[in-house]
Write a structure and sequence with these properties.
The complex is a heterodimer. Helices cover 0% and strands 48% of the residues of chain A. Chain A contains no helices and 11 strands. In chain A, the strands form 2 sheets. In chain A, strands 2, 4, 5, 6, 9, 10 and 11 form a 7-stranded mixed beta sheet that branches. In chain A, strands 1-3-8-7 form a 4-stranded antiparallel beta sheet, with no helix packed on it. In chain A, 35% of the residues are buried. The radius of gyration of chain B is 13 Å and the shape is globular. In chain B, strands 2, 5, 6, 10, 11 and 12 form a 6-stranded mixed beta sheet that branches. In chain B, strands 3-9-8-7 form a 4-stranded antiparallel beta sheet, with no helix packed on it. Chain B is mainly β. In chain B, strand 7 and strand 8 form a beta hairpin. Chain B is 0% helix and 53% strand. Chain B has no helices and 12 strands. The chains are: A mainly beta, B mainly beta. Chains A and B meet through strand 4, strand 5 and strand 10 of A and strand 6, strand 10 and strand 11 of B.
């Protein structure tokens, strides 16, 4: 079956602009995660959804970052007033339940470049 | 909070030789531990995971890892490297009570013919 998909694959924007990054999880997966991977680093947790609600948003770096999952499927990560330091690969993952031992399946990521 | 340490960002191994990637964890609660692989232009793929059952865990592509509580380690091994093993490998930990994975910085593995 289809895996996790993310669009766009690449996004170039100017400092100060607003961007939206989309994640389509594996069908039927109730848990969805966003991570950010900077160059030379491992992925860093941003936010976790169980169904429609954000169960843990402790990784969001500041209030410019926001994420939604209105129908419990597709999620959008929104970044306001982008800064050059926001440049990174944004990864989305999903798992079938919220069990801690469930495998998180990752998408290919969106590479965001802020000029 | 949980964390993992992976030393040596780049690892070179000869084709047919042992692959050994080290991972040490820090956790205040019994951990769950994972190894992921990332091939160029692809998403992270799970190699194997430790979830408190057997301490020796076998994964895909001939990889295995052993959980050693006394050493707080979860090192990844493969007896004989293939050219197709060239990729970046990440160790990750999660703790009971939260779903977030904390990743190490990764090891870029280069296989020399």
């Amino acid at each position: 079956g289809a895996g996790v998909s993310q669009t766009p694959s690449n996004k170039v924007t100017e400092k100060g602009k607003y961007v939206e990054l989309r994640c389509d999880p594996i069908s039927g997966h109730t848990a969805l995660y966003w991570y950010r991977q900077s160059l030379g680093q491992g992925p860093e947790f941003l936010i976790y959804f169980q169904g429609t609600g954000a169960a843990d948003d402790s990784g969001l770096p500041n209030d410019r970052f926001f994420a939604v999952r209105p129908e419990g499927s597709v999620s959008t990560l929104k970044i306001q007033r982008t800064e050059r330091g926001d440049s990174a690969v944004y990864l989305c993952a999903s798992s079938s339940t919220s069990s801690l031992t469930d495998t998180q399946y990752f998408g290919p990521g969106t590479r965001l470049t802020v000029l | 909070a949980q964390s993992v340490t992976q030393l040596g960002s780049h690892v070179s191994v000869s084709e047919g030789a042992l692959v050994l990637l080290r991972c040490n964890y820090s956790s205040s609660v019994p951990p769950y531990l994972f190894w992921y692989v990332q091939y160029p232009n692809q998403g992270l793929q799970l190699l194997l995971k430790y979830t408190s059952a057997a301490t020796l865990v076998k994964g895909i592509n001939g990889f295995e890892a052993e959980f050693k509580k006394s050493e707080t380690s979860f090192h990844l091994t493969k007896p004989s490297a293939h050219m197709s093993d060239a990729a970046e490998y990440f160790c990750a930990v999660s703790g009971r009570g939260n779903n977030r994975l904390a990743f190490g910085k990764g090891n870029q593995v280069v296989v020399i013919p």
